[in-house]
Specification:
Chain B: Keywords: FAD, Flavoprotein, Oxidoreductase. Chain B: It comes from Gordoniibacillus kamchatkensis. The complex is a heterodimer. Chain A is of the alpha+beta class. Chain A has helices spanning about 5, 30-35, 90-95, 105-120, 125-130, 140-160, 160-175; strands spanning about 10-15, 20-25, 55-60, 60-65, 80. In chain A, helix 3 (about 90-95) crosses helix 6 (about 140-160). Chain B has 3 domains: about 5-55, Uridine Diphospho-n-acetylenolpyruvylglucosamine Reductase, domain 2, CATH 3.30.43; about 60-175, Uridine Diphospho-n-acetylenolpyruvylglucosamine Reductase, domain 3, CATH 3.30.465.10; about 175-275, CO dehydrogenase flavoprotein, C-terminal domain (Enolase-like, domain 1), CATH 3.30.390.50. Chain B has 11 helices and 12 strands. In chain B, the strands form 3 sheets. Chain B has a 5-stranded antiparallel β-sheet with strand order 4-5-8-6-7. A 4-stranded antiparallel β-sheet of chain B has the order 9-10-11-12, with helices on both faces. In chain B, helix 3 packs across helix 4, helix 9 runs antiparallel to helix 10 and helix 10 packs across helix 11 (about 255-275). The chains are: A alpha+beta, B alpha+beta. The interface of A and B includes residues 51, 53, 68 and 182 of A.
């Protein structure tokens, strides 16, 4: 691309709890910087049009399609990719419920469900469906994915009191809420 | 990947954003205001929009405001559709916006961006039309507040370098009975065949449409006809469609005849739900 050097900037992003630096263009997508600059290939390029959800990550705890976000927009925010989750309940339930087939869509689903479980732990059927419609599984493993979500939410409900206390402490430590209207935020590192 | 370069600016005030636009425009950078940015990114990716500078409005506090001031609901243009839905501050707006794209995308798509979309649907404008809201607009020439009925004629009429800062809605509208229905061709996530939003006020039922004609609209003539209760409901619906400001569109999602059939069913459902039979 002609004249790209003139547009190169140094980005400093908080990714999975670490400050990372990358030389990028302001026009570069978050998805491309995560994959090409940081080697975090968990977020998958799919439609690159905001339709499939394979590239979903968390930004300040909220599911975000990283193909619909410029990397420069993420400065000052906490980005979490699937590499930032370590044997969480969501991941374990996806395994236990066989909620994947080829696996390409799985990181996007996992990040969306992780956000759902933290931000809407009391989600009803309508809310679960509404959130899951953001992701496409071409292998059509939707029932198993839904089963995994239901199981995660039920486990959270059954240990709600302890989890809520731990969650509040984690979120407070991460300080990730930036919206005047949002309540809470799914942050890095807790075990859902 | 976006196949061209641009500079990124994130001004902190409305005045700074307007001044930036004026300067960048004078330098030939073809600047664009950037809010959620989803449309600029997806259209830019296929080279159907070009810019050498984007001006991100999300860090301007006025554009992120959500407040009630003297009985008026003030909503910033950079609030996302998910935030509007979750907050329940204006349920008709929140639910109409919740029909756009999918939940994760709505975490990024903003209220102002939807209203100013290049696509024909702009469904978030329907509640503003129904509630006689006003729009606060700013640009290099200063700020102004304009009734939505004057500012929106199929699309928002903005002068060069102007952008939407906020909308202002009488809070009483947020408590009135409403209906919002979106019908798509097949999928759960798609542009509409028909979107109808309606509100019941003490004077009668107000109704606005998207996806039916080539632009969203609310029509006084249509509402007068629909509120003529001395006529059977289906007659009122038939006659009101004849008063639409433009032809019913025919495209890959549905022929005009099919769209009109769906429209009639949705209008009947809407009128009955609001006690307008």
């Amino acid at each position: 691309m002609a004249g790209t050097d003139r547009y190169t900037i140094v980005l400093e992003l908080n990714v999975n709890g670490e400050m990372r630096r990358a030389a990028a263009r302001p026009a570069d997508l978050l998805l491309d910087v995560l994959r090409d600059s940081f080697g975090l290939t968990g977020a998958k390029p799919g439609c690159l049009n905001g339709d499939c959800g394979a590239c979903t990550v968390l930004v300040d705890g909220w599911p975000m399609k990283s193909c619909l976000m410029l990397a420069v927009e993420a400065e000052g925010k906490a980005v979490t990719t699937v590499e930032g989750l370590k044997n969480t309940a969501v991941q374990r339930e996806f395994v236990d419920k066989f909620a994947f087939q080829c696996g390409y869509c799985t990181p996007g689903f996992v990040m969306n469900v992780y956000g759902l479980a933290h931000l809407r732990p009391d989600a009803d059927e309508h809310t679960v469906k509404d959130w899951l419609q953001s992701n496409i599984c071409r292998c059509t493993g939707y029932e198993e994915i839904r089963d995994a979500v239901v199981s995660v939410l039920q486990r959270r409900a059954s240990s709600a009191a302890d989890a809520a206390v731990a969650e509040d402490a984690t979120n407070a430590a991460d300080g990730a809420v930036d919206s005047p209207m949002r309540k809470g935020s799914a942050a890095n590192g807790s075990d859902t | 990947m976006i196949p061209y370069n641009f500079d990124y600016y994130a001004p902190a005030t409305v005045a700074e954003a307007a001044a930036l636009f004026q300067r960048l425009d004078a330098e030939g950078k073809q600047p664009l205001y950037y809010s959620g940015g989803t449309e600029i990114i997806t259209i830019g990716r296929i080279n159907r929009i070009y810019t050498e500078a984007v001006i991100d409005l999300k860090r301007i506090p006025d554009c992120r405001q959500a407040a009630v001031q003297s009985g008026k609901l003030v909503l910033g243009s950079a609030l996302t559709l998910s935030e509007l839905y979750d907050s329940r501050v204006f349920p008709l707006l929140g639910e109409t916006g919740a029909g756009v794209a999918d939940r994760t995308s709505r975490n990024k798509i903003t209220f102002g961006g939807n209203i100013c979309s290049k696509f024909i649907y702009r469904e978030a404008v329907l509640p503003l039309l129904l509630t006689d809201s006003e729009v606060r607009i700013a640009g290099p020439g200063g700020a102004r507040q304009t009734p939505i009925a004057e500012a929106f004629d199929g699309q928002l009429r903005l002068g060069r370098g102007e952008f939407v800062v906020q909308t202002v809605t009488d809070e009483s509208y947020a408590r009135m009975p409403y209906v919002t229905i979106k019908k798509r061709k097949v999928a759960a996530i798609d542009y509409p065949l028909v979107t109808v939003a309606a509100l019941r006020t003490s004077e009668g039922i107000r109704i606005a449409f998207s996806g039916v004609c080539a632009f969203p609209f609310r029509s006084q003539a249509v509402e007068r006809m629909l509120n003529r209760r001395e006529l059977p409901l289906r007659d009122r619906i038939d006659q009101s469609i004849a008063l639409f400001p433009a032809p019913v569109i025919s495209d890959i999602k549905g022929s005009a005849a099919y769209r009109e059939l769906v429209l009639k069913l949705v209008m009947e459902q809407t009128m009955r739900a609001l006690g307008g039979e």
